[in-house]
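Data availability excerpt. The first of two example chains:
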Amino acid sequence: MAQPQISDPVSGTPQVPRAKLEEIFEDIRSHSVYDHEIHGCLNCGICTATCPSAHYYDYSPREIVQLLWTENLEGIYDA
């Protein structure tokens, strides 16, 4: 039986257990190009300038990479 989703009382956003956030981050970090690509980013801004859907999101691609660099698990999930 599935457990009911617990939401933040103010925003109504579902709260995600820390273990699930860590699982998501480990999945991202285990990708074969993670180390190579993540350390070559944030310099030029081409990804944000050329991304046709970048303006639909609260975070630019560069901000998402910065969240990955700092291992901000909650920020990664929210992005």
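And the second chain:
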Amino acid sequence: MYLFSTVDNEELSSKNKTTNSITNHRSKGPIAAASRLVSSVSKKSNNSLFKNSNDTNEKVLLSNFRTSQSNPHLINSLQAIHNSSNLNNLSTISTNLMIPTPETIDIDCNFEQTYTQTRELIEINSNYFSQQKHDICRRFERLFIQLSHTLELSLPLIRYIIENFHHFDYSSEIRANGYRTIVVSHGHACLRTLNILQHIDKKRDGLLFNLMHASRLFQELESWTKALIGMQRILAFAVKIITYTEKKQLYVDVTQVPMDIELDYFKMVACDSENFFGRTCGFQFADSVGKTLTFLLAGLAAYNETYHRSIPIAAGVAIAPKYMLFPEQRAAKCAAALRDCDYLFCQSFWNLLDHDVVKKGSRYIVPHVTV
């Protein structure tokens, strides 16, 4: 259950005949499932767009797409971004320079403005905290430096993936694949980070900032910084896969993958999986889905801790609140469980749904409908 999948297996299996992907071969956890859910949400929005338009509107839309392809302003703007290598000037570049086109990315998935605002707030807050003498302010400053560095490394990777989206789409009308999911997930993580930066920017001058807000905001920002660093490694790995396949194959034959790419995959999984089970759990989804995933992961962590006891269910219920209240402990326990446990543990955990107590409780939540 790791938060990485470069493919959307259910939607894109008909486009490529090679079916043995490196993610299908070795992915063991919720990240692959989570990525599929994000991709399905993106696909649902695309389907609703085409469903609400009639045939005439579709023809007009396609005509506009062809017109945008021949528009020299768009071509020159995209070429300017492609040739640009000065990341420090990103905050001053107009967001119109990265106008999405049918060959690259949907308008709803464009996070360029989010990245620009995030980098501006990082610079402003970093300059502010560098002038303060408190220890927590020094820690904030170091965190801002890490956050700025990971964004500088991630943005060129995102541009490269966006430029090659169209090579892996199901069709020109159905623009969806696992690489889009990765870019959208990174954008949502940056949105959450931007929200925290805005809170810090508003409250940093308050008299009670160091006493009441600094510790909580630091923990939140630290979690999202680690998540973005993990997403940066996922983006780098995705770029390697695109380059290795020469932009022709969505699915990778696991028997022909070079050893260096395989080692990079296992390093990514071993180092970064814990960053997605704590405070950042379910950031790609709506808040309701994120809360559900948090509850499930807390149950998984508690059940893993009591798996070898005589009454694992009762002990798990008693321990579960700890993993709800302390996300760092939940993240460490879930990452260890999904890395070390075998299929018997997973089978035992999901078989809890067949327990009489769970069945009786579910009847009060979702009663049976008499047909």
